Inverse folding.
């Protein structure tokens, strides 16, 4: 849950920074552009937020003894 929250918060912060800097925020070589690429890669590496939410929900339901959620599978075509 912390990983999901931290990744989403970082993405919101860098999105705001890019908006604030305008064209300079996406120019290669600027700190904002480098951070945007790093955070984007982090989100991809950790898995999509939607998949993380399903995993968190499944664990919470398991802890409460509720019926299991269907498995989420991703297929790359």
């Amino acid at each position: 849950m912390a990983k999901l929250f931290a990744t989403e918060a970082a993405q919101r912060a860098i999105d705001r920074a890019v908006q604030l800097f305008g064209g300079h925020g996406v120019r290669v070589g600027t700190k904002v552009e480098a951070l945007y690429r790093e955070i984007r890669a982090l989100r991809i590496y950790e898995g999509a937020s939607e998949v993380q939410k399903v995993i968190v929900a499944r664990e919470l339901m398991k802890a409460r003894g509720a019926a299991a959620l269907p498995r989420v599978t991703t297929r790359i075509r």
Residues 4 and 48 are 9 Å apart (CA to CA). Residues 2-21 form the longest helix (20 residues).
